[in-house]
Amino acid sequence: MSIWIDTNTRLVVQGITGKEGLFHTRQCVEYGTRVVAGVTPGKGGQQVDGIPVFNTVREAVAESGANTSMIFVPPAFAADAVLEAVDGTIGLIVCITEGIPAQDMLRVKTALQMSSCRLIGPNCPGIISPGKSKVGIMPGPIHRPGPIGVISRSGTLTYEVVHQLTAQGLGQSTCIGIGGDPVVGTSFIDCLQAFAGDNETTGLVMVGEIGGSAEEEAAAFIRDNLQIPVVGFIAGLTAPPGRRMGHAGAIVSGSSGTAASKIEIMRECGLHVCEQLGKLGLFCREVF
Amino acid sequence: MKLHEYQAKALFAEVGLPVPQGRVAETVDEAVAAAVALGYPVAIKAQVHAGGRGKAGGIRLVKDPQEAEAAAEAILGMSLKTAQTGGHGHIVSRVLVEQAQVIEKELYLSILPDRSSASIMLIASTEGGMNIEEVAAQTPEKIVRIRVNPLLGLQPFHLRRAAFGLGLTGAVFKSFTGLLQTLYQLVVDRDLLLAEINPLAITAGDNLVLLDAKVEVDSTALFRQRDLAELYDPAEEDPLETEAKKYHLNYIRLDGNIGTMVNGAGLAMATMDIIKQAGGEPANFLDVGGGASAEMIENGFRILLSDTSVSAILINIFGGILRCDVLANGVVEAAAKVDLNLPVVIRMEGTNADEGRRILAGSGLELISAVDLQDAAEKISRIARRL
Question: Closest to B266 (Cβ–Cβ): which among A101, A142, A156?
Fold first, then answer.
């Protein structure tokens, strides 16, 4: 099985006519995702590779029955695009856009809490249920269907992890990049909760990084709620304090948010912590 | 993006928040003239992006022209090392000369977007002038934390909670709530990631004055805060980091000698870690982006080669949407353009990796290829140790 996306996913792409939007729409279609609509204000009535383009999300939903959205809208307009998707009652919204102002995300996140919609991202690679559907920018071919769930704050680091899993014959049920920003729509715990309800996911890999306390909270949740084995990894052991390491959320402040403190808490909570990224695949092979 | 104290105070003054009368000076003469104009006693404060300036000798209280001259001479041009500058000194090129205040009591106040609760957090304390993290650890009951729903905004009861929480009464209660409201609006309107007033002084006559200010602007919001974008001070950053910014590269300079170039921030951090675990020392963090192009690789090489402490380079690319063969061609072209003369270990994985490796092998360049991450880290560390 898988979580949140599968063969029933009907995708609308917001920002489908932009360069990135179009490129990744084609990649998703090629992977087998059912892309049923696009939205670009002012380009309603056009078609992209036979996919109808609408002016608004509401029109797109009414005409195409879309239930999932993928957003490629520039940062200045991305918060508005997410709110439009919420207004259009899109159940799952995946926002790829990087660089959305913090104030915008605070408002978006608060609005989401009052709705039944889920946002993944922003500043994330998206979500993939191998062999079923891909809603994001990750390379499809490195994935294999299987029983391992992957959750991560990174992009290419997740690809590295997935690549090693696949090389060890460990296929994936669903892989989710929750995004590297300080405020994200879906937390590690949200993902863990969903995986806990999926009886075909028999193991999890959680790829974290320095900054914030999301990994610590997730570890406590795992200790109290999950029966399946979880492998943990934290990037940023050598990161200097006080510097933002690329991701807006990746910063060690004072003594909190360090890789060492996260690893310690993950171990205390019973996670299988792998410190050597180069051997993560082998490590998982032994655990799972 | 951090602001200098004088820039932050100008921003506060614009919205009517009470800051001391002050002037910025870049020379000793200017500083003395400012002191005369303001009237003694004055505080002379080094303007660098670092807390802990007082302890490091960057702030002096002076009461006459002789003292003012001596203080300005000592501070201007000094290399200020504080607990927060991480071992590197900041050269002081400006001072803020301010009217000294007669202080009755010092409070603490900060407002910032809070990541975990997706709210705007107000933090206030009666223990002004102290390190707030220490106050939080030792006497948490002396800190008032208030989370404000960003859609509802600041409500009167928030103001009352904060003011009663600090035990304020009478005129100070009233001026504090007014100040809090104005500061909150400033944080929201100007996309601030932090507005910290420490201390917020109650002066003789029950007036509130924002004595010191730390302000950080959300750099992702500069497209709608253009006047704030102009306050960026490249002198506060490593010149290579400023240069990298021009190319839209995420670059942070570190102390080691192994230059790294990686696509994606998480993988870049993990690559630094793996170098260290193999016994090497990374010279930098460099993320050329998840969808790096040949041009980005070329700019990345330029930055790495400008750092004279780099003696070997590790490139780690996970080819996703961007194929490894395209990247390999980019590396070969860039290497020729930038006159690459250092040992380079390259590890490529992902889409079309075999084709990429074939291109690199046939390029005539002396690139050392690695089969996987572990191999890459071991090879680069071995090379770096020999150099």
Answer: A156
- Residue pair B288/B268 in contact (Cβ under 8 Å)? The answer is no
Structural domain A138-287, CATH architecture: 3-Layer(aba) Sandwich (3.40)
- Smallest CA–CA separation between B235 and chain A, in Å? 17
Which pLDDT value is given to residue B84? Answer: 60
Please, which residues have CB within 8 angstroms of residue B160's CB and are 6 or more apart in sequence?
B177
| The CATH classification of domain A10-120, taken from the options 3.50.50.60, 3.40.50.300, 3.40.50.720, 3.10.580.10 | 3.40.50.720
Low-confidence residues of chain B: pLDDT under 50? none
Two structure tokens written together for B220: 């992702």
ipTM for the predicted complex comes to 0.89
**B269/A209 CB distance under 8 A:** yes
Which pair of structure tokens corresponds to residue B238? 């490593």
Would you state the pLDDT for residue A248?
Answer: 61
Q: Evaluate the CA torsion angle A196, A200, A205, A211 in order and state its sign.
A: negative
pLDDT tens-digit map of A111-132:
999 999 999 999 999 999 999 9
Q: In this complex, do A246 and B268 lie within 8 Å of one another by their Cβ atoms?
A: yes
Contacts of B118 in chain A (CB under 8 A): 105-106, 109-110, 113, 183
Q: How far is A12 from chain B (nearest CA, A)?
A: 20
- Please list the residue range(s) of chain A that carry CATH number 3.40.50.720: 10-120
Question: Which uninterrupted H or E stretch holds B286?
Answer: strand B284-287
Quick check: A278 and B223 CB within 8 A? no
What is the reported pLDDT for B51? 76
pTM of the model: 0.92
- Residue whose structure tokens are 């006519």: A17
Contact status of A257 with chain B (Cβ, < 8 Å): no
CA distance B43 to chain A (A): 28
Which residues in chain B have their CB less than 8 angstroms from residue A209's CB?
266, 269
Structure tokens at A277: 């990224």
